[in-house]
Amino acid sequence: MINLKINGLNVSVDKGTTLLEAAQSIGFPIPTLCHKEGLTPYGACRLCVMEIGEGDRAKLVTSCTYPAEEGLKVRTASRRVLRARRMIIELLLASSPQSKTIQDIAAAHNVKQQRFRQEYEDCILCGLCVRMCKEQMMAGAIGFRGRGQDRSIGTPFDIKSEVCRLCGGCLYVCPVCSLRCTYNQPDKAICGACANLSPPCVEKEPFDDMMCYMEPCVACEIK
After folding, report:
1. Which residues contact 71 (CB under 8 A, 6 or more apart)?
2. What is the pTM (predicted TM-score) of this model?
3. Which of 121, 113, 116 is nearest to 175 (CA)?
4. How many domains does the chain have?
5. Which end of the chain, N or C, is less surrounded by CB atoms within 10 Å?
6. Which of 5, 162, 145 has its CA nearest to residue 71?
7. Structural domain of residue 147, as residue ranges?
């Protein structure tokens, strides 16, 4: 067994367990987008970031790909972590604001604006469809192509795949294709219709970590 601390709690997990699995096993809510049980961890969306270490040596890591280590000290909701997550959510909203999945994540994390150039992409390169097609459907009909800003997902040379069974598995797991919000105006990139109260404790001194993990957080808002 591997012993580590998550938000000050002593946790024992089996070797090979990721930080995401360790945190979820004791009930800490960790947002994910590119992660899905049964598929290989990919670490594309970065929403599951956690802070490991202490002081100047502390760093952010993707918890879905980082293995638990003996004696590791982990923080799942520090001010640094929440700031990074909100920045990532803004970038996702800039890419695909009509995804209800992304809108719900934004609302849950109290993201009310995004400061980047608005796009309306149909793909956020989370890789869920590629892994679903290869690992669950045993087809491998689609994959990543190109690099950088030219990176995309599709069949080799855009030729219709002979191994695709039209099962729809790729559409089933896609966070952009599944449910869509209907508006398309840049000034309404965040609807906030499903907004929850955000935890105020981490935004105020002297707290540098979230004080509770209730969803939605309401106790601190009640006067």
Report:
1. 3, 4
2. 0.78
3. 121
4. 2
5. C
6. 5
7. 128-173
